[in-house]
Write a structure and sequence with these properties.
CATH class of the largest domain: Alpha Beta
CATH superfamily of the largest domain: Peptidase S8/S53 domain
Number of strands: 14
CATH architecture of the largest domain: 3-Layer(aba) Sandwich
Number of domains: 2
Radius of gyration: 30 Å
Strand order of the largest sheet: 6-7-5-8-9-10-11
Number of helices: 15
Order of helices and strands: HEHHEEHEHEEHHHEHEHEEEEEHHHEHH
Helix content: 25-40%
Strand content: 5-15%
Distance between the termini: 40 Å
Length: 585
Amino acid sequence: MRLSSPSSFSVGAALLGLLGVLSVAQAQTQDVAAETEARVIVRFKPAAQSVLAKPLSMRRGDTETRSIVQQRTHSLALRSGLAGGKGLQSGLSLDARTHVVKARGIDSLTLAKRLAADPEVELVAVDQLRKRALVPNDPLYPAGAATQGPAAGQWYLRAPTSEVVSSINAPAAWDRSTGSSSVIVAVLDTGIRKDHPDLAGQIVGGYDMVAYSSSSSLALAIANDGNGADADASDPGDWVTQAEVDARTLGSQCTSDDVANSSWHGTRVAGLIAAASNNGLGMAGVAWNSKILPMRVLGKCGGYDSDIIAAMRWAAGLSVPGLPANPNAARVLNLSLGGSGSCAATSSTGVLYRETISELTSMNVVVVAAAGNSAGLAVGVPGNCPNVISVTGLRHVGSKVGFSSIGPEVTLSAPGGNCVNLSGPCLYPIVSTGNSGTQGPRLADDHYTSGVGTSFSTPLVAGTVALMLAQQPSLTPAQVRSALVSTVRPFVTTGGGVAGETPPEACKAPTATEQLECYCTTSTCGAGMLDAAAAVAAVSPVVVTPTPTTPSAGDSGGGGGAMSALWLLALGLAAALLHPGAARR
């Protein structure tokens, strides 16, 4: 195809190009101190006036090509209101209609949305900076390299393999996001050890709600910190002795089954969500640049519904009588807790949880809860409540781990840890931050501990949600759920059990009979296995495509009438500047 000669391009448009270069140069000078530089890739429509006015071809020299592209960019800046301090710069051309466009003082996503509205633009994509696949250097993360922790390391975070099927593929998610400090995850649990080296810088605010609803001697005994509700969410330990059970100082619901050393449960959950990572220390969290709001709701033998519900409200930023306002409202609530019971509208307890969760959902707060550890029985409260993302636990091979609850209320499944072996160290536990104190804490303890349970499946999902919100803060809970569900990997139907024994069956609807290991179905374990990388990718704002518009009666075919008029006005002004006598004639 024969190219039009340089002389066929109007003098006015040439001057516009010159003025564009000058205005961009001026904008660069004004914005030289700006830290934000946006980079997007813009593709113009084939019939765009700026494209038709001066087509590009490989035959054109570099200087002429740059001039033409800059003319297009400047015209785009004029139409988009970006010809001043945020003047656009042209960059590399990918083809005859596709060019890199840069600007200072504005972020890439905002620029993409703004330019996508232009009638001459076909597509805008954020020009992302790609790096090597991010793998943290925390010593507990890789397999076989840890001196403290399981030989499998943090197997549940790595990319899945044929042997370890249920891993969530966090490294590919980290290539897009490692979280944001503006995304706060509230951990409603036993409190937290803020002095743990992998958590010390990850905490914002928090509150101790244990004994908020009552300051009786029983409530204070359960609190175990000498007082009721206060702003210190530190975990004093939740150990229970047989002597306490026998003396009934912790109430009749505390039995010999509760006798144990301190669990440091909240510290373990918090570490899985947001332990400081890539710092050469300990372990990696899922969303290590996000923050944790510790909400202490569990003490010795557990915690009351009233304290938990009040904590849910306060954590989300709602007003709670008698408490100060929460300056660090959470976008995600992690509830690695629960118990038997119904969340139906006919249950009084269910109504309280349902109403609270509904109110939080209307505020765009995402609630993630454990399905429970009832060995295949029904999901408990609050995991069975509407609008909750409920999580079941998986073995490393992808089958349901024996201890996990199941049911139609489950949203999806994630690794819960399992040992496989009957003797020796557990092979596939979930390792996280902890404390080595058997009763009270050891201060500034850099201890890491291993365990199993849906309590640890849940924070893997909550951490993934934090990564998603870091990419797209405007997501609603329904959009988060949809993205998680639509990106899961399918459940396995082979690979479980023990060689030489009868293989597991498909999981069945829960009854009063326990179901140990079984192959998950979408009616018992949710939509599938969590894929953190796919979920984050699904909500990453990379490409912005403008919505086609129908020209009005007065429009010409190549865009809106107003834009066409602006184009002609600019050309006329340029011509007048070149030939001042023409205006007088």
